[in-house]
Each structure stands twice: as C-alpha cells, then as structure tokens.
Hints:
two-stranded antiparallel sheet, mainly alpha
Amino acid sequence: MVKTDSGSDLQLPYEEADVIEMPRSWSAWFGGPNTAIGRRIAPRIAPVAGESADDESDSGLSSNAILEKQLAEEAGSAIQYRTCSWQKTAALLFSEYICLAIMSFPWSYSVLGLVPGIILTVAQALVVLYTSLILWQFCLRHPEVRDVCDIGQMLFWNKKWAWWFTAVMFVLNNTFIQALHVLLGAKYVNTLIGGETTAISCQTVTIGLIVTIISWIASLPRTFGVLSHLGTGSAIFTFISVILAVIFAGVESHPAGYSPVPVTDPLTGEALPSGAPIVTLIPLATTTFVNGLNAFLNISYTFIGQITLPSFIAEMKEPRDFPKALWACTILEIIVFSIVGGAIYAYTGNQYMTTPAFGSLQPLYKKIAFSFMIPTIIFLGVLYASVSARFVFLRIFHNSRHKNENTVIGWATWAAILLATWILAFIIANSIPFFSSLLSLLSSLFDSFFGFIFWGVAYFRMRKADGAVSLFKERTLRGWFEGLVNIIIILTGVFFLTAGTYATIQGIIDEYAAGSVGRPFSCASNGI
Length: 528
C-alpha cells in the first residue's frame, strides 16, 4: 500500500501480500464493521461503453477509498443510490425469495418423497448461502461493481466477450421472470373469475395486458431504498397467503378433485385420481430420472437468486452488513419452505397435487389464499424489471447529471427502458405455449453460471490474489476443504448446465407428446 498526493490509499493489485486478507472466522460468515477486505483480483474494470477516461483514475485506489469516493459524489444529490441499510436489503431479499414459487415445493416433495425433499431444501439453502457470501466478499473487494455483468468481466480476465455474454444471460433471465409474473397475474384473475367469461374480450391476453401496465407503473421508483418498502409489504402478504394455504389444506374435508372410489374421465376414458391422499417418505419406484431431476431443479431455482445480489450490495451504505440480511432471509426460507411444502403435501398427497399447490384446495379456499399473492405477483416482476433497467440506465448516464438529479430526460429514459422490458415480457408471456418448461430451460442454462460456476471461480480468483490457492498452497484442513467445496460447486453448475438442460428438454418433448401444449396468444382461461 502507498499514498497518493491527495492522501488516498493506493493498492497495487499484484504486489505480494504479507498476510492473507481473506475474511476469516466470524466476520467471514456474519460481516460487521471489523470485516477484513481482501486484495483485488485486478485493477478497476475497463469501461465498456460511454465511460470517460477519468474513471480509470480509480483503478489504483483501495476498496475503501472507492466506496468513500462513491458516497462523497452522491452527497447532496436529489437521487442517491447507496442508501440501503441491511434491514432494507433484507426486505428486498425476502420479497425476492418468499414468493409464489413456495407453492411448488409440495409438488417437488410429492416426486422426491418427503424426507429427501426436506433434506435437499436445507442443503440447497446452505449452498446458496455459502456462494452468496463469496459473492459478497468479491463485491467488498470491488465496490465499483454495479451488477453481475461487471463481475463476469472481472472473473474472466477482463474480457469484453465475458461482459457481453453475462449481459445477454442477465437481461434474458430477468425479462423471462417478468413474463412469468405477467402470466401469473392472468392466472390469478382467471382463477378468481372461475373460468371463461364473455365480459372480457380475449380474456387471458387482455388481463395480461392490464397486469403489464400495472407492473410498469409500479416499476417507476428508481432506487432500491424506495422499492424495499413495497418489498416488505409483498413479503408479509406472501407469508399470510402460504399460512392460509396450509391452514385450509388441514381443515378442508378433502383436496380438490377427491373421489372416494375409482373414476374415469368421460372424454378420454383415463383413470382420474381417487382414494385417500397418498404420502411417501421416499420416492416411488416409478419416479423417473427426468421427473426427479426436474423436482430437484424446481427447489434449486427457487433458492438461486444471486443474479440480483450485486445490484443490491451496490446500493448499500455499508456493504459489510450484507450477511445480516442474507442470514435472516436464509433462516426464514428454510423454515417457511419446509413447513409449507411438507404440510400441504401431507394433507394433499401424491395423486391430487398441483403446481402451484393452490389448485389442490377447494375453490373458495383457493381463491382466498391465492388473493394474498397479488402484491408478490406484481412486485417480484417489478424488482427484476428495476434491476434490468438500472443495468441499462447507469451505463447510458454514468457520467451525467441525469443519473442523480430529477431531470425530464432522466425520468423519461428510465420510464422508456422499463416500458421496453415490460412490452417484451408481455410478448414472451403470450407467445410461448410451453412457457413454464422454457423458463426451466433458461434457468438450467443461466442459473448454472449465476448460481454456481461464477462463485466457484470467484473463490479461486480471490484466493490467488491473496497469495494462496487453498487446494494447492495452503496445506491446512480448512484450505483443502474449502478448495474441494468450490470445485464441487463448479461441477454442480456444469451438472445443471448439462443434465438439467437435458431433463427440461425431455419435459418439453413429453408435453408435446401428451398434447398439453397450448397456442400462442390464447384467449382461453389459464386459471387453476
């Protein structure tokens, strides 16, 4: 470390370290003001587009100095980005993870069996917790990081192709999640209506358009500090919704579609579900590899949300406090997901299970519980739209007053970017007849990187910058263990990318074979 003429710390990124500065012990897991910040893996990333040469003057500053400079530059601005406390960040995490996807856990447990399902739920939560902590440590070392695209470029040796590759995955992932929530909004309204109606022209498409407009308006706030208040309300309503679903599943006399005696479909002649609900502790012998893997991937995709974390950390006033928000969210996830998934499955059984599990409730109970999901259906799409819009907006106006001031050009551009993402989401939601399976396919392709591969690579890049790659140089039990864990994390990402993609494509083929694939822009009700 040396001092510049102005007195700022200058860190030469490739000089040999006297000590290994990777956060250790308590601070590595829980953060706090005493968290050590390790060495950068490289100088500040090169500008991608629209950044002036002045930005490169930060490339030699220490992480603390860059953070202090960012806070100083925003001081007094009308719109400030680094304003989130760890409590506000926790609210954003709650709203991202405590969502409608919880109601797909009962189906996963019906395929995997109750015991393996709960074990995999806890295991996946801990893996995501660990990789998120690696991500956090990376962001501490590089506070100029604005989103996962910056991280992708830095991890792969500052190559522009890595930035563009990550950016394409990033925007597609977020836009498809927006589209999913357009579809879910239409599904909710159709469920409430109870089927087809002549009062609405082209029912599902029209409802989807209304949901899109509402979501675009809700997306307009420009900082996560404002959205965190909406996120808190969203998480509370989701919690009420799933608790009601559990209560209703327990108090109703039988699940929807129940028949005490064997019956057949009058149109197809196929046997319909009948008899008392069947609950299994382990997978049935008839469970195929494709079904089992899809059920596991369903659990995994609900937890994998690291794609948004760099954007959240980039707006925290004190990034060292991020683990507090992460731990609070992870503990709540494990409790809520396991209890809701297990309880609803226990009362519904294998043969009456639907996804989302609201469809397994009697009509009145289904409508009441599902109604409390409205804020989440809107907000989660809004959150991902905001992350994508911020990604574009900050690159257009990186060195402009429009970024931090209330200008007509700034707000008009922000609104236009959001509108473009929502129009694309609306088109996607109505164009793809096998949307849920395609979303799983995209998750296999994208989450393999954003959930696993990136963070295993980040671990080894940071350890190399500290002067010791754990598996090869730091010959301690902890060093070997951490090294092996991160190799396994990378291999898990490769498994998601290969076997997960295969399982999803096979699921799409099976849907076509069964004739269950609908038509693009179908007006028919999609209610459950």
